[in-house]
Design a protein that fits this description.
Layout: H1 2-41, H2 43-52, H3 59-98, H4 103-113, H5 119-132, H6 137-167, H7 171-185, H8 187-201
């Protein structure tokens, strides 16, 4: 009885940690999403407020820097959207060829998860493979091979090359900075590594 009670307590504790961790991640996602929408809808308000806090003698220089950061982040976002669209399209078409149900929905989630460089593609691929196993091991194996191709395309071709053109930063530097922020700040560090690198460069 004591062993059963102890095992039940351990299972409850781990389940509670998982639920709280998931709730925290979802909460953080919506906080970042809300802030992003707030900044995007009225960028001039925040730009003017930032410049207003700058000492008058540095304001002209600060204006140039802020505008350059804005242009750089715009290029980064366009490059990110191109990468996400490519991951969505390749995943969708590949799953349709394999014959997996809900290929379009799985392609959308893979494209959205591609916003997080490298790790997002792994999570998206894991979901695709697990969903494909319902159609048999051949479909699961085919989906796994597709996932490897999409992951290689996103992580080693699209992200380094497109982001290098958008941010004018060498791919090795981008990858190293991703790893550093991922180790220090986890998933959010990975997701925001490229825009933070762009800001630091400006």
């Amino acid at each position: 009885a004591g062993t059963i009670a102890s095992s039940g307590g351990a299972i409850f504790s781990q389940s509670l940690k998982l639920i709280l961790g998931t709730a925290s991640a979802v909460g953080n996602f919506f906080i970042v999403l809300f802030l992003g929408i707030a900044f995007a809808t009225q960028p001039a308000v925040y730009r003017n407020g930032l410049l207003f806090m700058t000492p008058a003698r540095h304001r002209q220089r600060a204006t140039v820097i802020v505008d350059r950061i804005s242009e750089t982040l715009e290029r980064w976002l366009i490059a990110q959207i191109i990468t996400m669209a490519a991951v969505f399209f390749v995943t969708w078409v590949g799953l349709e060829i394999i014959g997996i149900q809900s290929a379009f929905i799985l392609g959308i989630q893979a494209g959205l998860l591609a916003f997080i460089p490298t790790v997002g593609a792994i999570l998206g691929g894991l979901i695709v493979v697990l969903a494909s196993l319902a159609s048999g091991w051949v479909a699961g194996l085919s989906a796994f091979i597709l996932f490897l191709g999409v992951h290689a395309l996103e992580s080693y071709v699209l992200t380094p090359l497109i982001q290098r053109q958008a941010l004018d930063i060498p791919p090795a530097t981008l990858f190293a900075f991703q790893i550093l922020l991922g180790v220090v700040f986890g998933v959010w560090g990975l997701a925001l590594a490229l825009p933070l690198m762009a800001i630091a460069k400006v």
